[in-house]
Amino acid sequence: MNELNVTHGLDWLDALAVAAFLAVWLWLGWRIGHPSAARPSVTVLMSDYRLQWMRVMVTREPRIFDSQIMMSLRQSTAFFASTCLLAIGGLLALIGNVELLDGVAMRLSHVEHGGAVLQTKLFLALLMLGNAFLKFVWANRVFGYSSVVMGAVPNDPDDPQSMPLALKAGKLNGRAAMNFNAGLRSMYFALCALFWLAGALVLLVAIAVTAWVVWSREFSSASREIIIDNGSDTDR
What we know:
two-stranded parallel ribbon, 77% helix, single chain, 8 helices
């Protein structure tokens, strides 16, 4: 009978990888929301455009186009919230099946009773998905607040309440977008967390790749260059 390697739990390298995972996730979220003035993130740049959208809305008649955009934004948050619920349900079903996880651990690494370790690793992805779900739900609600305030903007552009209410709607829209983007980042990191199943070193590599993807899309993407373009005709 072949001798089995018996695991006694996670080691210091796993703890280091999880600490790095959480630190990078939290730091990226803070940095994207609080970038330097010299290099703003796409999220911050789009918040300025949301305010500009509301300034234009004040003089737009009719405002059907604006309501259609808000409907699309709320549908996006609802879609991702539903997707998170499905993923959370699948992970909970997997985590609850200890015998299956024990069998997977045995086949992959010849570890006896390794299901508990796999459960712990899956909880990290579950944490990220849970956070994403909460962010999407809150984003949907704040988009709703923004829609109501938009509806309160008087039809008369010369009304003294028109612009203040429109800007208030724009700020709410920006806060909703911040939460929506935070939910997307949590989904990125939920996928990253699954690489922990292959080991702490693999998770560290996945963290670096995920951080690079998130960072580049906010600070170095072609879309960002288009957004900050001053209107020149240069093709990108």
